[in-house]
Design brief:
The protein is α/β, with parallel strands linked by helices. 32% of the residues lie in helices and 24% in strands.
Length: 370
């Protein structure tokens, strides 16, 4: 299934396309990057899509441009879900390594993978014990060891969302951050967990207990808002208040679970909080057999990036593995903040009082019920 972006692009003439782009993407020209021929060849060989776009900032007198390249990877699983776990994970490692190599050749400095990228998203099955070997320690688990070597080799900061098992055996939906030297620098645990339909993550792990950390890396201040957290405006707000310049939203989401507003939430968050947002969603179909019943989940990809001024890139494919490369100038964050003044004109003190008051009322109502 082709993406909406390509459908529109292939059916409008140049003048019509410019008008559409202005309304839909926020600018008439998507500012495509000129990628290397070796990058295009590598994507053909690896059977994944590659696309590149740029966001520029106004030239300033006192600050130099703060330009870097980001990479977002969306991918499907490789082996059927009934294959040995070690084989499934190793096959994904091999696939992703080839994509990271291409990203590195294009000077990507910060790269983010999709939610629980090392495994099928088995959380719709209701089973736990069968999949427990996918859970791993954050600091020295197999995925962190694997990516640390690549991060050091390419001087790249890598965000690795995994299923974490802590020292007490407790599970968490976690994003590990590895710096350009290959060192573990911290993690974020998913704050908001869905309990909708067949997705009931609360039976697998607890809501995050690490707040809203922002990681001050060599290339910029970054944060991770994992999947379901994108539905919560205050979750986005807290990363901004803590100083994030780029917030990644790695996800594993299907059509019936919010595709209609996939292109909206992260975009509005970028506008409201004056930072870049990066939305990454997996692709492909995953099949599970539970007591002879088959469950099927198909993910729609469509990964994209939004700038603080609301301009966004086209999305990657709905059904192909892909690498999205975005060149941006972090100076744009402050420029937009100064222009619109949302931070300056916000009334956080008023909001805080109202929230406290309403929480108190709700707690009293609940107490009366008993």
């Amino acid at each position: 299934m082709d993406s909406l972006d390509n459908i529109i692009k292939n059916r409008l003439n140049k003048d019509q396309l410019r008008q559409f782009n202005k309304i839909y993407y926020g600018r008439e020209d998507n500012c495509e990057l000129e990628l290397k021929e070796s990058t295009k060849a590598g994507s053909v060989k690896g059977n994944f899509e590659v696309a590149g776009y740029s966001f520029i900032a106004t030239k300033e007198e006192l600050r130099k441009p703060n330009v870097l390249r980001l990479g977002l990877i969306q991918h499907s699983i490789v082996l059927p879900t009934d294959k040995p776990i070690s084989e499934q994970r190793e096959a994904i490692f091999k696939k992703v390594e080839k994509i990271i190599e291409v990203a590195a050749s294009e000077d990507v400095r910060i790269l983010c993978l999709q939610e629980t990228w090392t495994m099928p998203f088995f959380l719709c099955t209701g089973e736990k014990e069968k999949w427990e070997e996918f859970a791993e320690p954050a600091i020295n688990g197999p995925s962190t060891v694997f990516l640390s070597k690549l991060a050091k080799r390419y001087e790249m900061v890598i965000i690795s969302p995994i299923l974490e098992r802590d020292q007490d055996g407790k599970w968490w939906n976690t994003a590990v951050v590895i710096d350009e030297n290959g060192d573990y620098i911290g993690k974020h645990r998913k704050n908001h967990l869905p309990s909708v339909g067949s997705y009931s993550e609360t039976s697998y792990y607890a809501p995050g207990n690490l707040g809203h950390p922002v990681f001050d890396t060599k290339y910029g201040k970054i944060a991770v808002n994992i999947c379901y957290g994108r539905h919560h405006a205050l979750n986005w707000l807290m990363f901004g208040l803590n100083g994030a310049q780029i917030v990644f939203n790695p996800a594993a989401t299907v059509t019936e679970f919010g595709e209609t507003f996939w292109g909206i939430e992260a975009r509005t968050a970028a506008i409201a909080n004056h930072y870049f947002t990066c939305s990454i969603n997996r692709v492909g179909t995953e099949e599970y057999f539970i007591n002879k019943d088959k469950k099927v989940r198909t993910y729609y990809g469509s990964s994209y990036v939004t700038a603080p001024n609301g301009c966004r890139t086209p999305g990657l494919s709905k059904d192909r593995d892909g690498l999205l490369i975005v060149e941006l100038d972090l100076n744009l964050c402050r420029q937009v903040r100064d222009q619109w003044g949302f931070n300056m004109t916000s009334r956080l003190d008023v909001y805080a009082k109202s929230i406290d008051k309403n929480n108190l009322k709700q707690n009293c109502v609940h107490d009366d019920e008993f």
